[in-house]
Amino acid sequence: MDNAPYHSVKSEKLPTATWKKDALVNWLLSKGILCDNTQLKIELLDLTKQYLRDNPVSYVIDDMVAETGFEFVVVILQINYLK
Description:
By secondary structure, the chain is an all-alpha fold. The protein has a domain at 13-57. It has three helices and no strands. The protein has helices at 21-30, 41-54, 60-68. α1 (21-30) packs parallel to α2 (41-54). The protein starts with 20 loop residues before the first helix and ends in a 15-residue tail after the last helix.
């Protein structure tokens, strides 16, 4: 598999700083994180970062492979060129 853009499509849209405060609250509540509209947006973004740090991002291609019963093996190649 190469680094084509369609291989890195995330399963769900993740919150960014451009999201409205209400959308951030709804996303956090859907993940089971207690918060409310009285918190500052930066606090909500910090909660989001903590959640994403503890829970890996899933990609569409990962879900498709899992449905077939296969598993990904990630191999990172490091090439050192001699000068």
